[in-house]
């Protein structure tokens, strides 16, 4: 997780430097746009992390039940259920 974070930080710094040297206030506008985007996305991201954590815990607890309904032996029923559940996730 550290390496992707460092790579994204390096890309952000490089783009910031490029925007600064382009002249004008592009680097300031870019920071304002990214701040607005962060404010819009942050609540959804936090909720998604909670849902992912809960789903992971429940999946471990109900592994045999999930395997019965969605595993290789479930056949067409498993494919249909998995497809329907997949349409609910963004």
Automatic annotation (TrEMBL):
Keywords: Membrane, Transmembrane, Transmembrane helix. It comes from marine metagenome. The chain crosses the membrane at residues 6-21, 41-59. This is Permease.
